[in-house]
Amino acid sequence: MSERVGAEFVAGGRSPALSLSERGRFLGYAGVLMLLTSFAQPGGGLISIPVVFFLKNKLHLSAYQTAVFNLWTALPLYLAFAFGLLRDRWSPFGAGDRGHLTLFGLATAALYAGIAFLNPTYALLLVGLLLLTAAMQTVMSSAAALFSAIGQEHLMAGQASAVLNVALNLPLLVGYLVGGGLSEMMEGKSASDAARLLFLVGAGLMAAIAIMGAFGPRRMFTAHAVPPTTRFTEDVVRLLKCWAIYPPFILLTLWNFAPIFGTALQYYLANTLHATDAQVGAFYAIYWGLYLPGFPLYAWLCQRIRLRKLLFWSTLIAVPDVIPLVFAHSATDALVAAVPMSLMGSLATAAFYDLAIRSCPKGLQGTMMMLVSSSAYYVALRFGDLWGTALFEQKGGFMLTIIVTTVVYALMLPVLLLVPRHLTCTTDGQAVAPAP
């Protein structure tokens, strides 16, 4: 378990020579790339909310049936680390990330366009979203790996985490805000017209990603290309023996395993609190939108405060994150409750990703980032959603989901004791000390 992580910085070292404008350009390009990818994700961004309401309002699925649908379509996300490993070991046309983005961007755009003109039955949506999700993963792994490489090589893991989280959360804000309204607009259309509109938007976003991959800045791709140096099995063993990957994996799994969120909350807001589709979208928009100011704050704090302190205090603040929903007795109350919920969680999210970036084994950035940002996220999200829906419909109701979620969050605190100290004893701009 003595595997060194990251770029194997020497303690006390300085950041590699890179101008401030180049740093900003690298982070900005990676941020826009991840932003478009997150918007186009079938399980998030602009697509997921209209799909859920389509299943509920057009196909008349129950809450549990919708959760099962989401569970199946997320299968490629549970295995996202394998797509990350594919990115780390295979270079299409010898072009590295540029090849992945162009090839799989075009393939996913074609899939979206094809599905747009077919009859939107349950079976088609299930198979179509499954294929789309699989095709998206290599694109996502290339975008995520760029953040890890930038953060490690230029000693700004915290700042990279902040930009990455903005890129991941802004589509959630826009998706829930626009998605709820889009769902209501689609109510007046036939099922075929509604689905066509939705999937053509996805096709356009993926085409834009392919263009960015083909014509993006040359140095952005060449500077952070890491060719594989070992065989496949050796890379897998090297990853598994790296103790540093386990704490961020566990932390992000617990943080995203929230039975209260997802289908149970959506149906509670709509059926119990009588919120409209647009109000449900507005709740999530407020929740994810108010995460956004916390990320620039984290980018400022991480240059002044060691990660160890940021991890502890942000996690402690995040544990009671869902408690404000106890006091929500109307749709308006729920919108108000979304404010403190968001403010309590944003710094913890940034700190967990900061730790994940610092923990990436060299040459396996795509694998590690997909492991924590997709595999851990969606396994926790979907199975937490399924459990929360069962608690909501069959057991103790919505209040029980609040209690269970809070207990799960409290389990994050002892996990902090497992984090290797050498990874958290520095601020951004200081070299990460090698493992003892």
Number of DSSP helical runs: 21
Major sheet characteristics:
none
Q: Averaged pLDDT, please? A: 82
Rg computed from alpha carbons, rounded to a whole number of angstroms: 21 Å
Helix content: over 70%
Total count of domains: 1
Ranges where pLDDT stays below 50 over 5 or more residues in a row are: 1-16
What is the name of the CATH architecture?
Up-down Bundle
| CATH superfamily caption | MFS general substrate transporter like domains
The ordered string of helix (H) and strand (E) elements is HHHHHHHHHHHHHHHHHHHHH
The termini sit apart by 11 Å
Task: Indicate the CATH topology.
Answer: Growth Hormone, Chain: A
CATH class: Mainly Alpha
Helix-and-strand structural type: mainly alpha
Sum up the overall morphology in one term: globular
Strand content: under 5%
Count of DSSP E strands? 0
Features:
436 residues; Growth Hormone, Chain: A; 21 helices; 0% strand
Give an overview of the whole structure.
This protein has helices spanning about 20-40, 50-60, 65-75, 75-80, 80-90, 95-115, 120-155, 155-185, 190-215, 220, 230-240, 245-255, 265-270, 275-290, 295-300, 305-320, 330-360, 365-395, 400-410, 410-415, 420-425. The protein is mainly α. It has a single domain, classed as MFS general substrate transporter like domains (Growth Hormone, Chain: A). The protein is globular.
